[in-house]
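User: What would this chain look like folded?
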Amino acid sequence: MVNFKIENIIASTDLNQKMDLEDISGKLEHSEYNPGNFPGVIWRPPTQYGVALIFEDGRVMCTNTRSNDEIEELLSRLIKKLESLGVLTPRTTCPSCDAVVDAEDVVCIECGTLLQK
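Assistant: Here's the prediction, encoded as structure tokens.
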């Protein structure tokens, strides 16, 4: 058997929303945006090993993570920050079908479940 050590996991997700990278880079601490060198915002949270790359089409790449837990923590922190800064529409999950829906939606478009009263 070959011995190995996991040193870097790369993961991706989609925020399902167009992102204004100039706005994000101006509001999100510990981020940089230089479109002449790289087409996305680079976010390096100071208390975490991982790095998030945010692209205009809503894709996010996580790199320099070493476990699934680190990926989940990095993405959760990023999404909460983007929502609190007003650059990402708050999302929730439908309790019936687990579809991701806007937090303001009244009915799930996937299954028709009433989300708010």
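The chain has a mean pLDDT of 89. If you want, I can go into more detail on any region.
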